[in-house]
Amino acid sequence: MQISKRIQGMGEPALLKYYPLVSKAEARGTKVYYLNIGQPDITTPPSFMEKVNAMKNDVLAYAEPEGETALRQEAVKYYSKYGFDYGVDDMLITNGGSEALLFTFLTICNPGDEIVTPEPLYSIYKEMASACSVGLRGIMTYTEEGFALPDKKAIEAVITPATKAILITNPGNPTGKVYTKEEIERLRDIALAHNLYIITDEVYREFIYDGLSYTSPGHYPELAENCIIIDSISKRYSACGARIGFILSKNHSFMEQVRKLCQMRLAVSSVDQLGAAELFKLDTGFFDDVLKEYTHRRDIVYDCLKNIDGVIFKKPTGAFYYVVKLPVLNACDFIEWMITDFEYQGATVLLSPANDFYIHPEDGVDEVRLAYVLKDSDMKQAMEVLGRGLAEYRSRFPEKSR
Amino acid sequence: MQISKRIQGMGEPALLKYYPLVSKAEARGTKVYYLNIGQPDITTPPSFMEKVNAMKNDVLAYAEPEGETALRQEAVKYYSKYGFDYGVDDMLITNGGSEALLFTFLTICNPGDEIVTPEPLYSIYKEMASACSVGLRGIMTYTEEGFALPDKKAIEAVITPATKAILITNPGNPTGKVYTKEEIERLRDIALAHNLYIITDEVYREFIYDGLSYTSPGHYPELAENCIIIDSISKRYSACGARIGFILSKNHSFMEQVRKLCQMRLAVSSVDQLGAAELFKLDTGFFDDVLKEYTHRRDIVYDCLKNIDGVIFKKPTGAFYYVVKLPVLNACDFIEWMITDFEYQGATVLLSPANDFYIHPEDGVDEVRLAYVLKDSDMKQAMEVLGRGLAEYRSRFPEKSR
């Protein structure tokens, strides 16, 4: 029986292969610190479930294909606080940010078209592109440079006649990079010159540190036809289990076409939409507390990494990840060894291999992604374990180290 | 800015164009009976929300990409009651039956491949196929014949080298047709001879009348590699607003590939999965009551249709729809006239134009789909209005009537 090329071409998350090993480590009694996943541990605001629990409908009926008006109305107010003027008709509710991306790729690309995106990239973009028979072309950025975008010429060198969009994640996963106003304007100029969409995935919008200001392509009226914002409540409100995403755009013909995909899949969860509308009513004080906590965690990791020999990194300014270049030849080998052969004070750590975040798996082989999603004391202990593990690996395997 | 051909090729539900007219009718004070949609009015079993309300998680975290094990375990028990032996690993939970279909189309078809399906068909299959760059080829079936499948030769005539699957809806939407054991075995023989998948959409499994027995391609061990069941709780438990669908198959390599799409979109709503698991615990007595109610409604419609001049139809044996051939040249014109120009005792009815349920819109131009989703007295009144409307239309517009 045939399996399509587009799905055969999709990868599986690199992480999955470690889980059987992690289970064994845990069965041996080793405590495993999960620094590999972006599942926040912050309590979901209780107003979500309070609203759901107060629901009195006898029949759990289909929601509107475009998303419930009540939710979109609350979202309009939220976006206005961030300098956007998206109205109810400029947004569609999707089954998570993932469906927002999938529908966008399907709508703007014919099979064989291309999307240009900085690397390292959110790994799922690769699978999404494959599922849509779309090619991805990378704009390489580097840990040493804090993942700054290269100049206009270097970006334009990647654009071909098949290119239909530039895709960014801002703040970045896995990079933690927050694009400057100047970088966004560089992309704006390129998008306008080459008639490209800019897809801007802003699910970490609130996770910006050091008082840095936030610039979105959605802030530029001249990009009204080009800009497509992808959004989600998952990280923002620690509500990953509620599948509520957004597509926002002022390009009406694009939105009319995406609406057909929304009609095709009928609706998004009524209960999740009901709860999500309450989350958008929270005042920004909620984010202040979350941000303080994550800033603290980021700084713990920074202070610990500074004391580890041979690692290369910059302090990230957004999201909740570091990409760290390790003094080893193969990060996958090191990650696996940590789980199977190492523990310190009864504990070890699980990291993400960063080559999963590059288009070509030979890139980033000596890098890992580290998510700072643990509370204070756990975060410190995990970093201690990582430092000790790295020292022991290098002393045991000098041939595999730098 | 480019819009892809695949999405440009998608249609919009024919129904949408009537809603502005319906709003006007309602504003005039006309009562509109909605016979156009498949939104059941049966109360959603309260155990769904009871379980949701009892949830105590602090963090609304991602569910497993394959679907929560607790839900799949309950589903295994449900399927065993219907003669299936699908285990937890033979099923994936999806965002409604729609995502199940989308993922299946993407996984088994390359762009340009084809799927063969009886017509009239569930109209969304057309949009789904377009989104996946897949061609649909119809096997024509007829109201007059109760939508019986043609013989083997006629079906095989539609198969080309590009055909990858036969897709059926059983019981059928819009046809109300329940395939006989003999018909299912005819399809089985064809699928085996031509190495095709059989995708069987069984979301109306419980809606089978007159004590008819139910046969699924999933009951045949020889179809283990071919058979893919699409399912959903929407109609079964009157829970359309909870987006819970299923893909079931014993074809392990197919399931492994679909799993990648599940990982790509991360998860299905945690809250909806929690509630859905409770629904699968309901005993079959729940369906007995529902079935009694729908049988009654079906019979009301039947008795009324018998007394309307010139309509052609058979009593359906499944789902909750009739396809009725009207004694008019253009059903769309009649539907619109009913909304804009007709009322009887202050009421009118909204029907679905059936040409939306054919691949070529010139087919079924004199047919409508009628959903019997209203309670007893409303159903009777709606049918009275329809009969009166049809008589008046024919007398006023003999040139548009037969």
Please tell me about this protein's structure:
The structure is a homodimer of 402-residue chains. By secondary structure, chain A is an alpha/beta fold. Chain A contains 13 helices and 12 strands. Chain A has helices at residues 5-8, 19-27, 47-53, 69-81, 96-108, 124-131, 152-156, 181-194, 252-264, 270-279, 285-306, 331-341, 376-396, and strands at residues 31-34, 91-94, 114-119, 135-140, 163-169, 197-201, 227-232, 245-248, 321-325, 347-350, 352-353, 367-371. In chain A, the strands form 3 sheets. The first copy, chain A, has a 7-stranded mixed sheet, with helices on both faces. Chain A has a 3-stranded antiparallel sheet with strand order 9-12-11, with helices on one face. Chain A has a two-stranded parallel sheet with strand order 1-10. In chain A, strand 5, helix 8 (181-194) and strand 6 form a beta-alpha-beta unit. In chain A, helix 4 (69-81) packs parallel to helix 10. The radius of gyration of chain A is 21 Å and the shape is globular. The model of chain A has no long low-confidence stretch (mean pLDDT 95). At the A-B interface, helix 1, helix 3, helix 5, helix 6 and helix 9 of A face helix 1, helix 3, helix 5, helix 6 and helix 9 of B.
Using only CA atoms, what is the Rg of chain A? Answer: 21 Å
| Assembly status | homodimer
Strand tally of chain A: 12
Largest sheet of chain A: 7 strands, mixed
Termini Cα gap of chain A: 47 Å
Separate helix tally of chain A: 13
Q: Order of strands across the widest beta sheet of chain A?
A: 2-8-7-6-5-3-4
What spatial form of chain A do the alpha-carbon principal axes imply?
globular
Strand content of chain A: 5-15%
Low-confidence stretches of chain A: none
Structural class of chain A: alpha/beta
Mean pLDDT of chain A: 95
SSE run of chain A:
HHEHHEHEHEHEHEEEHHHEHEEEH
Greatest interface and its residue counts? Answer: A-B, 79 and 79 residues
Q: What percent of the residues of chain A sit in helical stretches (DSSP H or I)?
A: 25-40%
